[in-house]
Amino acid sequence: MLNVARKAALEGLNILVIEDQWLEAASLEQACRQEGANILGSVPTVAQALGVVSQSDNLDAVILDINLQGEMSYPVADVLARKGIPFVFSTGYGVEQIPAQYKSIPCCVKPIDPAKVADILARHALDVKPHRGPVVASAVQSNLLLAGLEPELAQVIADAGEECELPSGASLEVKGTRAGYCTFLTSGVASMRIADSARENVEVAMIGREGMVCASAVLHDASSATHTLMNVEGAGLRVPVQALSQLAAEHRDIELMLQRSALQLMDQMARTVLATGRYAIEERVARWLVMLSDRLGDSHLPVTHEMISWMLGVRRPGVTAALRTLGDAGCVRTERGAIVLLDRPKLVKASAGCYDEPPMRAIA
């Protein structure tokens, strides 16, 4: 990442360094300060880290050493994940020991290059960048779940949360942990993925401004079964799970909205299972592109062949061949780092019935 982009990403963020070697902690603090970040301090033990992280309400990101004076810091990682605070690991023992639910968290192996850690933090670990101000009405109306509520109820939810930027790669939900926030997307697209112990993973659903991330955390108070990341950068309204749970208990319409969101997601997952088991790659690619276009509200899709192959769980050459066929049929045009939809009805037809999505609209 260029220095100017890194500085823009880190500037103004409140960062905590959790490291038991004071020289390394000082180097990391200096590297982050040079990029405009505010350093809240450094702590050397798990107990101290848990105290600071649990009590802090202005923490934006954390650099977390895995081994703190002989004690594994995963309890700290659990709290960070639950509160929705982005973090990166540092370790002198290799990445093999990292639990499966944290395999996707960036990890820097010691000896650490402080500038590299700052770069990784800026590129991958800044899940959300709060706007630190009141939520504007346009943000509420941009999410179709909120837009389907009575304006007064939608504003009650907005008052309990905060707007945030969601860069590509931002982690909104971590498998095996309880989410700290629910996120109503107002732009961009998130990918819900399932992974096994061998780190094989595939997309099971995509979420845009028609839905929200972590509705199940409010309805079932359970650990996440999936890992949800931003595929296409955007923005959203994030609301603490505890606050949204209380609002759902007080307002039946909010509870019903959460239930609708969960049912919509289950319906999409069921359609994805059918598509995966019964349709050819070309038809699945056509479906995926139309779904992404629906959620972005745009025909210019900032995705690559590699991303599509990863989402669908197929080999990249198969995706390239499918896009070539769709291009020859006049459905799409491929560009460097993007795919452009030329004829949506044709692309829907090319899905051979694989695409069967409800219209994108507010649901009252």
Could you list some keywords that capture this structure?
364 residues; disordered N terminus; 5-stranded parallel sheet; alpha+beta
Care to describe what's here?
This protein has 364 residues and is of the alpha+beta class. The chain contains 15 helices and 17 strands. Strands 8, 9, 10, 11, 12, 13 and 14 form a 7-stranded antiparallel sheet that branches. Strands 2-1-3-6-7 form a 5-stranded parallel sheet, with helices on both faces. A 3-stranded antiparallel sheet has the order 15-17-16. Strand 4 and strand 5 form a beta hairpin. Helix 1 crosses helix 5 and helix 13 crosses helix 14. The longest helix is centred in the last third of the chain and has 27 residues. The chain is globular. The termini are far apart. The N terminus is likely disordered.
Blueprint (SSEs and pairs):
Layout: H1 3-10, E1 14-18, H2 22-34, E2 38-43, H3 46-55, E3 61-65, E4 67-68, E5 71-72, H4 74-83, E6 87-91, E7 107-109, H5 114-125, E8 129-130, H6 137-142, H7 144-147, H8 151-160, E9 162-166, E10 171-173, E11 181-195, E12 201-207, E13 212-213, H9 215-220, E14 227-240, H10 241-250, H11 252-278, H12 281-296, E15 300-301, H13 305-312, H14 316-328, E16 332-335, E17 338-341, H15 344-350
Parallel strand pairs: 1-2, 1-3, 3-6, 6-7
Antiparallel strand pairs: 4-5, 8-9, 9-14, 10-14, 11-12, 11-13, 11-14, 15-17, 16-17
Helix pairs in contact: 1-5, 2-5, 3-4, 10-11, 12-14, 12-15, 13-14
Concise account of the structure shown:
The protein contains 15 helices and 17 strands. Helix 12 packs antiparallel against helix 15 and helix 13 packs across helix 14. Helix content is 44%, strand content 24%.
